User: What shape does this take?
Amino acid sequence: MLNDQSAIGLSNRFTVKVTGGPDLGSWQKAEGLDVTWEVADYRAGDAGNARWFAPANTKYTAVKLTRAADSKDSKEVRKWLDSNSFAHKAGSEIRIALQDSSKSDIMEWHLRNVMPKKWAITSMDAGSSSVAIETLELEHEGFLEDDKA
Assistant: This one.
């Protein structure tokens, strides 16, 4: 009998890449990969307490990436930001892939129509010995194939 085991996605193994563009490097955190569905609730005046539900809007949270700033990957992000700052390219897509311990993809999200929302680096302090943290927030139109009729 074969042992059928599923690979498990590890929260510390994921990749971030602009589709058809640069690899944005390794990140410590990726937050905001979630979706919420609003539900319209209808009640008829003559139906007592009966309710009808219908799908309404789908809402996606902005994705926030966090990591220590470095000499290679942070420069790639800067170049990508330079090219997208005021020239948002419709149809831009970013792929975030969750991986297992052998770096095989377990799950992936293709963020559609991505636009940089915010980039920041921690304040610099000559009296501190901490690592500079870089954050990148991405606004997007979603990752589900729910826009098809």
Summary: The chain has a mean pLDDT of 86. Residues 24 and 77 are 6 Å apart (CA to CA).
